[in-house]
Amino acid sequence: MRTWGFSCFVITFWIFLFLPQTCISSVRQNGKVSPGFEASQMRYIDNSGLFLVSNSSNFGFGFNPNSDVTSFTLVVIHMTSSTIIWSANRGSPVGISDTFLFDDDGNASLQKNGKVVWSTNTAKNGVSAMELRDSGNLVLVNNDGGVVWQSFSHPTNTLTSNQSFIKGMKLVSNVNNNLSFSLEIENNDLILSAEFKNPQPYWSIGKDKRKIINKNGGDTNSATIEGNSWRMYDENGTFLSQFVFADDSDANDSATWVAVLQDNGFIQFHNLQAQITANLKIPGDSCSRPLACPSYLVCNDGNTCQCPSGLTQVNCKPKIESSCNKSRISSTLVSAGENLSYFALEFVSPDSNTDLDGCKSSCLNNCTCLVMLFDNKNGNCHLFDQIGSFEDAKNGANIEAYVKISGTQSAVSQDQNDSKQSTKMVIIVVVIVTSATFVILGLVIIGIRYHKKQKKRNNPIEDPDEVSEEDTFLENISGMPVRFTYRDLQEATNDFTTKLGQGGFGSVYKGALKDGTSIAVKRLEGLGQGKKEFRAEVSIIGSIHHHHLVKLKGFCAESKHRLLVYEYMANGSLDRWIFGEFFLDFETRYSIAIGTAKGLAYLHEDCDVKIVHCDIKPENVLLDDNFLAKVSDFGLAKLMTREQSYVFTTLRGTRGYLAPEWITNYSISEKSDVYSYGMVLLEIISGRKNYISSETMHFPAYASRMMEEGKVGELLDEKIKVYEKDERVVVAVRVALWCIQDDMNSRPSMTKVVRMLEGLSPVPPPPVIGQTGFFSSLYKPFSEFGTSSRPSDGNSDAYLSDLRVSGPRSHTDTNPTRIRPSTDTNLPKRSTRKPIRFRD
Ligand SMILES: *[C@@H]1O[C@H](CO)[C@@H](O)[C@H](O)[C@H]1NC(C)=O
Ligand SMILES: *[C@@H]1O[C@H](CO)[C@@H](O)[C@H](O)[C@H]1NC(C)=O
Ligand SMILES: *[C@@H]1O[C@H](CO)[C@@H](O)[C@H](O)[C@H]1NC(C)=O
Ligand SMILES: *[C@@H]1O[C@H](CO)[C@@H](O)[C@H](O)[C@H]1NC(C)=O
Ligand SMILES: *[C@@H]1O[C@H](CO)[C@@H](O)[C@H](O)[C@H]1NC(C)=O
Ligand SMILES: *[C@@H]1O[C@H](CO)[C@@H](O)[C@H](O)[C@H]1NC(C)=O
Ligand SMILES: *[C@@H]1O[C@H](CO)[C@@H](O)[C@H](O)[C@H]1NC(C)=O
Ligand SMILES: *[C@@H]1O[C@H](CO)[C@@H](O)[C@H](O)[C@H]1NC(C)=O
Ligand SMILES: *[C@@H]1O[C@H](CO)[C@@H](O)[C@H](O)[C@H]1NC(C)=O
Question: Is the pTM higher than 0.70?
Answer without folding.
Answer: no
